[in-house]
Amino acid sequence: MKIGILGGGHLAHYLARAAALFGLDVAIYDPDPQAMALRYTAHGFSASWDDAEALARFAEDCAWVTIEREQVPLVALRLLAERGVALRPGVDELDVLQDRLALKRKLDARLEVGRFRKVSVATDVLDAAQEFGFPVWLKARRGGYDGRAVVKVQRAADAQPALERLVDYGELYAEANVGALRELSVTVVRAANGDMRAYPVVEVVPRADMCHTVLCPAGIDEASAIRATEAARDAVVLLNGVGAYTTRLFELDANEVVVHKVMPRPHESGLYSLEGVITSQFENHLRALLGLPLGDVAQIAPATVSIALVGERDGAPNPNVLAEALQTEGVHVHWYGHPRALTGRRMGHINILGYSTDGAEKVGLYCLSRVHL
Amino acid sequence: MKIGILGGGHLAHYLARAAALFGLDVAIYDPDPQAMALRYTAHGFSASWDDAEALARFAEDCAWVTIEREQVPLVALRLLAERGVALRPGVDELDVLQDRLALKRKLDARLEVGRFRKVSVATDVLDAAQEFGFPVWLKARRGGYDGRAVVKVQRAADAQPALERLVDYGELYAEANVGALRELSVTVVRAANGDMRAYPVVEVVPRADMCHTVLCPAGIDEASAIRATEAARDAVVLLNGVGAYTTRLFELDANEVVVHKVMPRPHESGLYSLEGVITSQFENHLRALLGLPLGDVAQIAPATVSIALVGERDGAPNPNVLAEALQTEGVHVHWYGHPRALTGRRMGHINILGYSTDGAEKVGLYCLSRVHL
Questions:
Q1: DSSP state of B201
Q2: CATH class (in words) of the domain with range A182-370
Q3: Which of B345, A82, B110, B94 is nearest to B102 (CA)?
Q4: CB-based contact (8 Å) between A262 and chain B?
Q5: pLDDT for A160-176, tens place per residue?
Q6: Which of B13, B61, B193, B322 is the best mutation test for A, with the most CBs of A within 10 A?
Q7: How many CA atoms within 13 Å lie on the side-chain side of B55?
Q8: Where are the domains of chain B?
Q9: Rounded (10°) CA dihedral B131, B132, B135, B136
Q10: Is A269 left (phi over 0), alpha (psi -120 to 50) or beta?
Q11: pLDDT by residue (tens digit) across B256-273?
């Protein structure tokens, strides 16, 4: 049996590793011929997202095709759907997930997603500011991720310049600012028969819009954890998702939580599960796709911390990074093997298991202090 | 950086998985185009062991070439050595390791390996029996593994027929029978600078000459464990090994141990380490090759048991095996994806972590009772 993955980055690679545990063949498709996951399959394809012929060869004999990231252009999924390829998520599901406004509207039916409204011109933005108060977040409906296509509007004079900065992104909307105490993330895996398992609520500490440090479990009140988990479960059900779905949330005062976004896949905030949980998010995503029983989501240690290894300069990767990082015993090093280091690029990550998130994080920070990326 | 592996079975695949954690490219070479590890690399090569041109293409840009199994024909290593490819083990080391008698002679200098003597004709076998007592094990120096090229000589009349059965194997020798209580295995990983780490002593419960069940740690007296570990460390030093070396031993009465054989690689008896130890034998083998610091060999749980999934018939693999095996929570399933099931073929294995080997084994046996292989 063969599984196809659209996108060939490190998340695709971890999905492929999980598939290999079950003896499955894996086909990977990425327009970038240097995409790292292509190196670890005999069925790698590199062509544009609208190359119907290459997509057909890629999907040949695939029981399911899934995606590594929700930004995979819909044209690729549509071409595959026309050939009758089984897709998770499907075209219609991904269409909603790529449209921030449509997603918010869908979730708003049952979940707290914060206030938002569609905007087109400067007066709309000012209306939004009157309703929500400043600052307002101006966002593109489509094409945004990792902080892209987002502009903060601090005062009335910012409205028109903000609109102009996003002019290439099509339709826009405005979001109220929420005073978040913490950013949280919950991955829920859901089987086609409706069975669900929720991974622990983790705290995400972003840096430069990257999911930089993840603390599992999040050091939050039990009431917040329950609300976050319930919200993530509800989100997957509302979206009729099958597979691992990651919900990012903001924790507010008084144990309130607000859903920020939902992604139909294992996410960077779930990399800790590779060594930290009995069944990783990647393995459970596949189990759900294949109709296999979902696996145990218990933590292996009381705490796991995952820290990104971020490039600090442009150039050849430092060959000593691995050796230095590995000096710290028991730290699981993941190095993606990118041919070039770039400032701000995620070059790998480390997972640290321990008795407390605080202790594990300190081990990780000590380790990082010896690595020159 | 690229690593080459000669042999493309599941052990090669686990080496390749470890290499991918470090972002390394992996080239795999196996004459069998269906060898499972070939499916998970963009650099797979299938040609005969003496195809100099294919070997050259395989080894291009490889920092190191290692082997999956010690039966890889020396001709392949010689052809690579002629091209200046860095090999672990080297040609001379593997030459000794493939020759059971030469290996025993080498180890005999410092270790208890049992009594043995070279034999050629029936009277030699009878002389051995007179010295050791019946039964005597008649073995080929080369070409034997997993119980092949081994004949038990129970009485004088068996000597000539036994010699005739091994006539195609070249030179022979005889071994004394040892009254083993248990079979043990110890993997030691050794760096080029001499650093060593010994994995826990495990008990191997063979079935039909296959390493069927592995219990970690072995339920043996501390004195036996120390002697087994010391013997395994000494063996690697005597052989000047770099990488993971697996030493199989017999435990006798009174905490005595006898070295049975040594293999220059991670072995089936170390599959438990994939989930059971912080750094798997495969990862540490690579670390040693690459000159990286050796990783922590502490167990993740107090006990881990690994049980082979063995084909019970010939035919298409049972598609329900995975689903049924996965019903048992927390059991790590490894399924190699062989296109055909064969009676007696290792189709995969399960690793079970627990608080005791007894408990973990029972979980595994319960799981197996629900699987029809």
A1: P
A2: alpha beta
A3: B94
A4: no
A5: 999 999 999 999 999 99
A6: B322
A7: 24
A8: 2-98, 115-176, 182-370
A9: -80
A10: alpha
A11: 999 999 999 999 999 999
